[in-house]
Amino acid sequence: MAPADTGIDLERVERETQRIGRELFDRVRHESAAFFRSERWTGQLLEWSMRHRDTRVQLFRFVDVLPALSDPEDVVRHLREYFEGRPDPFGGLMKMGLGVAGMGRLGARAAAGTLRKGVEQVARSFIAGTNAQEVLKVVEAFHRQGLGFTVDVLGEATLSESEADAYQQRYLELLEALTDQAARWPPVEQVDAAPWGPLPRVNVSVKLSALYSQLDPIDPETSTRAVMARLVPIVRLAKARGAHIHIDMEDYRLKDLTFHIFQRLAEDDEFKDYRHLGIVLQAYLKDAERDARRLIEWARERGTPVTVRLVKGAYWDFETVHARLEGWPVPVYERKWESDAAFERITRLFLQHHDAVDLAIASHNIRSIAHGMAVAQELGLPPRTVEYQVLYGMAAPLRRALAEMGQRVRVYTPYGQLIPGMAYLVRRLLENTSQESFLRQGFAEGESPEVLLRNPEAIGREAAAAAGSGLAAAPGPGLADGGWGAEPELGLPPYRNEPHADFARAEARAAMAAAFARVREQLGRRHPLLIGDEEVETEEAIVSVNPSMPSEIVGYAARARAEHVERAVAAAAKAFPAWRDTPAEKRVEILRRAAQIMRERRFELAALISLENGKPWREADGDVTEAIDFIEYYSRQALRLSRPIRMADLAGEINHYFYEPRGVAAVIAPWNFPLAILTGMSAAALATGNAVILKPAEQTPVIAAELARIYREAGVPGGVVNYLPGYGEDAGAALVAHPGVHIIAFTGSQAVGLGILQEAAQLRPGQRHIKQVITEMGGKNAIIIDDDADLDEAVAGVVESAFGYAGQKCSANSRAIVLARIYDQFLERLVEAARSLIIGPAWEPATFVGPVIEEEAQRRILNYIEQGHNEGRPVLIHEPPEAARRLGGYYVPVAIFADVPPTAVLACEEIFGPVLSVIRARDFDEALHVANDIDYKLTGGIYSRSPARIQRARREFRVGNFYINRKITGSLVGRQPFGGLGLSGTGFQAGGPDYLKQFVETRVVTENTLRRGFADEAAV
Ligand SMILES: Cc1cc2nc3c(=O)[nH]c(=O)nc-3n(C[C@H](O)[C@H](O)[C@H](O)COP(=O)(O)OP(=O)(O)OC[C@H]3O[C@@H](n4cnc5c(N)ncnc54)[C@H](O)[C@@H]3O)c2cc1C
After folding, report:
1. For 325-328, which contacts have Cβ atoms below 8 Å and span 24 or more sequence positions?
2. Atom 36 of ligand 1 has which residue's CA nearest to it?
3. Beta strands at 936-937 and 981-982: parallel, antiparallel or unpaired
4. Alpha carbon of 301 to those of 195, 207, 297, 667: distances in Å?
């Protein structure tokens, strides 16, 4: 490919850009008010939100929820909750709404009616209609005016295969209706032809996420197959009727997959020669230029050009926030001029290769557009080689001006129902009112053309010069340290979560697949006990099998008995004093080395977890990152605790309050987070100076053996960590009863936990201390679905929380408490979404629901499902597919029971499987009551868009971890310390600021510094 900008005189292009830009400004000047004051409601709303930055988000949230409210009193309640005491966006209406309590239903109805009409009007300025008939009229008018169009189908998020089928049907019907109609329109040269030939009149934009409910880049092949199955018939029809299909670009997670599917489609023999296919490139992505070059090369190889719509990108806020939350590199440029400059560079690149790519410049920025026109002119391209695209309802004067100048203009025209259209509408409102928006600066704030037409590269150069001279703005608080707060006094880098693997990236997928292969080669080894420095073989072994396919033996662990417990406690007791007296800094150094080893072997560890306990890829990866997090977080906490606290600073005496380890810690861990929880509990004990005996669950001894090895490799001395796999009833019981054990850190079932608490309370001969017991037990976790919830979010969140990792997390959702008004609607979508989940072996990347841990669990869950038929209405028993069953794994169906009474066994007992009870609640009070009226108090959540109810639930839904408008699983160390109240456990939450205190005891040393009447002032 020729080097960039070959044959382009950039100075001339700049001069022409300025000239064309000014011409465009001149042409739109007399209409500039129309950019923002299209009609009363929209204009007012946009202006108001630009004046009230702080309340802007409240306003858009209110607009978002409004269509979902059917009762006028609900509308008024929300109005009050969103705006009382705040600036009022709706003038008199607000007062009217707030006065409604006294005015009764009539007043509410009037206020709600006006508001709803207003918001509908706003929506209508960006959304062309609610059905195909309405949009047809709009696009026909466009054609008459010499404008092209592309129609976008707005709808709910596709959460199920039936919804994906419905989308496909809508696209097919739309194509038929549009092509029938368009064939009758008179020709309009300006949009019906390009220099290379006739152009389709009908142009439809498609989002791939609409066509497959399980679309996930973690398994590109499965996703590609499923999308193609629905996309190909659409494109086939389009080709038969001579229409253009354009694939929209969504968020970064789907970018590579979208390109992959597009290319697969366009390379297909059936479509290889079809020119009227298009894709989008987002210039705000740092990858964009590289992707553009690849696209050009690929298109040239294909032999027939494709269209590329060049945009800056619509998900800027999401991409930056999401990447920061995940700890991933931010994929978009973070300075506006960088996106603008990239847009121009890529414009030049595509136009230089116009033989391979038909370029469509989609922007409302006059500078970006003028630059495109200047480059086309510089390269001597025939008129109308480039297409200009704008969004419906935005920049109408600009599109008119472009058309008047003889350009080919296309309007992106969405249509659909209001509720599902809200996401689109809110994106447009945000875009129009964003501080960085060209439209806002140019047409609301009246910035001068000189400023608006400035070359982005020049802005960049100025910014760099200012940065050099120290004039550039410093990053805001929280950004410099990633929001975590620096901890210079600890001498360690600030704590932050270990980022999850991003399986949207091919490198991560390849690394995981390779790790599976490597780990599988090493399965079936023996894992002796580790007592002190000695590896101890036993005659009996615990056979660890792969729950996805039990014929695969993961390993043979030695089986500890009471006598081994005796030896291990002795070894730990012997090693304890030296470890206690090792400076905390040294202990932390060793532990952090263990974290580093985990980082280096993260994919092998994840693969081993997946094979030994049936976790799908992401879950297994999360297990490893959480283990690393525990070590890193507790390391910092331990350093803090190691500093004695000087109490009351008075002359004459010195009082030191300090923490000391307790002694020998028995760490009794569950199988469901076989690395994370075992590491968390043991790292807490080790960091604070205790010696540890690891007693992993008998189902997952091999990953535990790996942890013991990592600790030793990192430098934890012999005896300070001991590895004793065994069964709860012998090794576990012996450990709990042993008088030499000081701490029992247990995570597991309530029955075993309560038993441990009782046992540990017995004082045994030779025991001179009271055992400290930390228990994390079960949950029967509820999510309340309020009647104003965003169902796209609520259904997805419940599915993820209830069925992720086959419902085997203690935090899993097993009760959905749904308010009556939306009960049926929610249930229908939930059932279809759950029916679409992929059940299969955990090593397959597409698997969402893997097997359960063992045969006994499988039997127990099947019994509950059987019993559920007597207690509720079975609305879904989604059986594992035959292929999974043939593996002989411990698969169970995904089951949903509706109308379950809150007191039913199904709704009260912890099942630890993918079984969900859906409970109907009359109103919010009842929902809260049902949520709280249970023995367990571990996690809970709410999906609601009512600020007052969210606030109330925050206070009154009393669980250890409460989540608002998100899934209730996946807590992160240092961000969501985890643990329950009630019968869900004792002690402080894991991964939080107080957890380590349970592993230490406090002492106070007081020294009198007054001798013979004078004090030693220097003493500290
Ligand atoms: C016809 C059409 C089709 C479209 N299709 C898609 C699509 O399929 N996928 C998609 O993602 N978008 C799509 N868009 C949306 C488009 O991305 C936005 O409308 C566009 O980014 C606005 O850019 P602008 O040049 O009009 O405005 P400008 O005001 O010049 O640019 C605004 C854009 O700059 C970027 N930006 C803002 N702040 C910063 C910052 N601090 N640092 C770096 N960059 C910043 C953002 O992308 C923002 O949207 C489409 C737009 C049109 C007109």
Report:
1. 326/499, 326/500, 326/502, 327/482, 327/496, 327/497, 327/498, 327/499, 327/500, 328/499, 328/502
2. 336
3. antiparallel
4. 22, 25, 6, 60
0.85 exceeded by pTM: yes
CA dihedral 393, 396, 399, 400 (to 10 degrees): 140
- Quote the longest CA-to-CA distance of the chain: 112
Residue with tokens 């939930």: 830
105 pLDDT band (50/70/90 cuts)?
Answer: low
Q: Which residue has the tokens 């045994």?
A: 764
Q: Which two tokens stand for residue 304?
A: 């027939």
CA 314–ligand 1 middle distance (angstroms): 5
- Which residue's alpha carbon is nearest to atom 17 within ligand 1? 313
Please list the active-site residues.
776, 810
For residue range 639-659, what is the model confidence (pLDDT) as tens digits?
999 999 999 888 899 999 999
CA distances to 838, 869, 905, 963 from 917, in Å: 20, 11, 10, 19
Rounded to an integer, the average pLDDT of 113-127 is: 88
37: helix, coil or strand?
coil
CA–centroid distance, 261 to ligand 1, in Å, is: 23
> C-alpha 1019: how far from its chain's center?
53
Residue 474 has pLDDT above 60, yes or no: no
Query: What is the CB-side half-sphere exposure of residue 712 using CA atoms within 13 A?
Result: 18
Would you state the structure tokens that stand for residue 441, as one six-digit string? 């600066």
pLDDT score of 480 more than 50: no
Sign of CA dihedral 601, 603, 608, 609: positive
* pLDDT, greater one: 1015 or 887: 887
Other CB atoms within 10 Å distance of the CB of residue 321:
11
Q: What percent of the chain has pLDDT over 90?
A: 82
Cβ of 432 closer than 6 Å to ligand 1, yes or no, is no
- Average pLDDT (194-199) is 95
The 8-class DSSP code of residue 201 comes to S
Tell me, using a 6 A CB cutoff, whether residue 412 lines ligand 1.
Answer: yes
Measured in Å, residue 633 CA sits from the centre of ligand 1 at: 39
| Run of H or E residues at 309 | strand 306-311
Q: Is the CB of 391 under 6 A from ligand 1?
A: yes
Atom of ligand 1 nearest to the CA of 439: 29
Q: What is the mean pLDDT of residues 669-682?
A: 98
Residue with tokens 């709860």: 728
Residue 963, both tokens: 């989540």
Q: Record the tokens describing residue 569, joined without a space.
A: 């406690």
Cβ 255 under 6 angstroms from ligand 1: no
CB 363 near ligand 1, within 6 Å: yes
Closest by CA to 676, choosing from 613, 622, 750, 728, is 622
Residue 475: per-residue pLDDT: 45
Q: Are 455 and 596 in contact (CB under 8 A)?
A: no
Q: Residues 6 or more apart from 352 whose CB is under 8 A from it? A: 2, 5, 6, 7, 8, 379
399-427 per-position pLDDT tens digit: 999 999 999 999 999 999 988 888 898 88
Centroid of ligand 1 to alpha carbon of 453 (angstroms): 17
- For the cut 50, the answer to whether the pLDDT of residue 478 exceeds it is no
DSSP-derived pairing of the beta strands 549-558 and 541-546: antiparallel
Ligand 1 neighbour 209 (Cβ under 6 A) = no
